[in-house]
Amino acid sequence: MQPYELSLAAAADAIRARRLSPVELVDSVLDRIEKAEPHLGAYVTVAAEQARRAASEAEHEAAQGRYRGPLHGIPMGLKDLIDVSGMATTASSRVRAGHRATADSTVAARLSAAGAILLGKTHTHACAFGLTTPQTRNAWDHGRVAGGSSGGSAVAVASGTATFALGTDTGGSIRVPAALNGVVGLKPTYGLVPRHGVTSLSRSLDHVGPVTRTVEDAALVLTALAGHDPRDPASLSVPAADYRPVAGTDLTGLRIGLPRTYYFDNVHAQVGTAVRHAIGQLEALGAQLVEVDIPMTRYIQATQWGLMVPEAGAYHEGSLRTVPELYQEDVRILLEASELMSAGDYLRAQRSRTLMRAEWARMLEEVDVIAAPTVPMPAVGADEETVTWPDGTVEGVSDAYVRLSSPANITGVPALTVPVGHDAAGMPIGMQLLGRPLGEPTLLRVGHAYEQTQPARALATAA
Fold it and tell me: Which residue intervals define the domain Amidase in the entry (predicted)?
């Protein structure tokens, strides 16, 4: 096994035991980038020499006994919404082509302090306003969408061109590409990870979180990221915590919510089968399955768009009026649509969110975790714009991909996607676990227990 193939946890163990140096690991991943990146388009920019210098410094620190923890010497990619001092933050859009960060974002600073090494910035759907990231190709099939908007981060992790990466999630933008590329994605509780220095799409829906190879890896990154930052008004005042899940697979006493409504409606048959099989595995580990009804399902899409579109429009108002031609067409149309929404529309969406949060809180008193598909279908072809369901319903691809992930953004609950197999064409399928606010330890425990019953996952076959 080459160093670039190692999970974060395995690489961390090897570095701590001095069986692997940060220089060897970073060189291996950079070599992998050189070979795979021309076929994938995961990165906006790669800072190879900067990464090599940081790896050399990390190796010197380790030799001196100054080990910073499990992220020491681990190479990462950051979605190009996340500021790093001295580097461009383009949001994969011409609108921000001249922007250069003057300071680190909170998350970049925390990862640097933990010893992680920046490889470069990963692509996003322009301005993070989309679910496909068209400039990036799926790591399993280059003719299919990567998912979005954190498509570059997911493809980098799935292909071995980053050991881990950060994404952002406003309606599913971590979980969707993670599921479509066969990796783990975590959207934390709203406010758990600070967003200072991160380009916004929708302030009341935006989250920052990790994309990794394993659930244990996600826990290691979350441990470094979480914690209060007064510069983010939504940041929660919670004590520092170690999110690493305990070893073992016993889930006795845990109640898993199995949705009777919404999450299995208009879902690809092979996705439904794979997710139900994985839920059965959780039951075999001792969990109790409890059927639940998802509340207020008819209002989910309207609430998501009713919040996101006006907030995105407000953020981009100035540049949309002065340089509209610099926006990607699909993004510009959505932003222009925001001007057609009234204050009353926005206030009704906020009221709907308040009611939905209360109903979800009541539902989550009955169960510890809800298990469901992450997305209703595997990655579609890059030129496909709609999907037709067996009942004749025609749905836009982006609408389909956001449909099962947006409830966690509206309500702010944590959500984790874990790979649970492949369809007949070999494309990955993801299971989504949703929990109570600040319920990350339980989600990570369940996801980790499931992973331990499965064979080790290989990197993407087409990468």
Answer: 24-444
